[in-house]
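Course assignment 3, question 2. Fill in each field.
Student: A.L.
Task: Predict the tertiary structure for the chain below.
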Amino acid sequence: MEKFNIIPSPTWNRLGVNCAEESAGIPETFDSAGASVITACPEGLEVGDDAPIACEELKSSTGFDEIIENNAAFSFNATVEDKYANPLVINTEDAAVVGNIYAVEGAELTILHVLRGSSETLTRVYAEKGARVNVVEVSFAESDNIRYSAFASCCEEGAEVRFTRCELGGNRVVCGSKTVLQGNSSAYDFAGCYFGEGEAVLDFNDLSEHYGRDTLCEMHSAGALSGSADKILRGTIDFKEGAKRGVGHESEDVILLSPDVRDRTAPLILCHEEEVEGQHAASHGRLDETALYYLMSRGIPEAQARSLMVEARFARAIDRIPDETIREEALTTVRRRLQNA
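Answer field:
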């Protein structure tokens, strides 16, 4: 089997985190039997079929970009030349999709991609000097669906890319992201949440590479696991030579709702430069019984109290969904899955 989601700096093989396991392998072919439709487009933004060359050269951390490209039946490509207050909204169901966004100097755009059923997505973003691009992916996959996501971006001087990934179900969920902070004072802000239930397999590999000076990276994930779900998350901040005064923070907060889940996390900070600041943290465990008791003592039913505690952890990602209806649907989905946990 070809290896995917390979960790940048391998550790002991016995830990089982160096790459995706066979159970997470991506299929070579994907039947895009569904559809992908742009349901909202900011006035003046043109979305076409031709991908900017700078975007096509970007690679995610997954290793399966080419497979998704070969499977893709739909695409959205845009060169952003203005500041847009309203988001570009794409709705996809049972399809493989490739998206390329090239933001020129000073441009701003938000992309909301809502996915249902089984899906494969490859999204690439190139941000010129001072550009701001915000990409939000929300997947409502069900227990019999597969979900593969690859994200790649590059930031020039003063540019910022924000990426939000909400994986709220699925039988097999394999995702990876890679951002290159090429320019000085560039920034990357990642927020992710996931819910694994039943016999779900979840595999994540997120990477931020710092090349410019005074760069900033925030990578934070939260998850909930129930049933016999099996999850691996690799989070890497890599300070390359010359990335002086670079700052990177990463964290993961996981709630274990069953004694049968398998949860593995590999936070990693690589330093090729001395004058940097890197921090990582991970929290794994059951719901805090003291906090749960406190909420129940205030008249909140146990089920609602449990839901509030999980939602609080997911808020960093879900609150960034720029559509109230989809945001509420995401919260409803989390509550439903908690009831079944």
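Instructor remarks: The mean pLDDT is 94. The chain has five helices and 16 strands.
Grade: pending
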